[in-house]
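Standup notes
- DV: blocked on the single-chain target, sequence here:
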Amino acid sequence: MGKLDDLFEGSKSHPFVMIAASLLAPTVVPILRSAAKPLAKALVKSGFLAYRSVQEHVAEATEEFHDLLAEVEAETKESNKAQSTASRSPSDPSTG
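- DV (later): unblocked, structure below
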């Protein structure tokens, strides 16, 4: 508030500015309020839409990650099965 005080320091119009502001406030405040409400609503709506978009992208990424994990799991099981059947083969002298 120091800068605001400096603006009016030494000015004799300081009380007049305050009186003018108090007289204009009942007119100006409703105008500002009526303009602020649609702006606030638009900001909330934009934030909500951004949230939904991010939520959808995260869901898609999660689904792709789960698909990738399922593929890796299937390949690992297949690889382990191939290794276990290869180690039991009749041509292996250590098994027989």
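- Follow-up: The chain has a mean pLDDT of 84.
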